[in-house]
Design brief:
0% strand; 61 residues; mainly alpha; elongated
Length: 61
């Protein structure tokens, strides 16, 4: 399994847990959805930045 997939699964687990907690606390579903979208976006950005391969330049020989 790739590191990106592991980061993504972790992000979804955190987003799901926070959404469940917000639901139990009585938050409106629209705010829960907005929060999950934001957390998922941040997780994807983090996963891409942590797992992307560095490009070799002409000076890296």
């Amino acid at each position: 399994m790739s590191n990106f997939a592991i980061y993504s699964m972790g992000t979804l687990l955190v987003a799901g847990g926070l959404a469940w907690a917000a639901f139990k606390l009585g938050a409106a579903p629209v705010w829960i959805t907005i929060g999950v979208i934001i957390i998922t976006g941040l997780g994807i950005m983090s996963a891409v930045s942590k797992t992307r391969q560095k490009e070799k330049s002409d000076t890296d020989k």
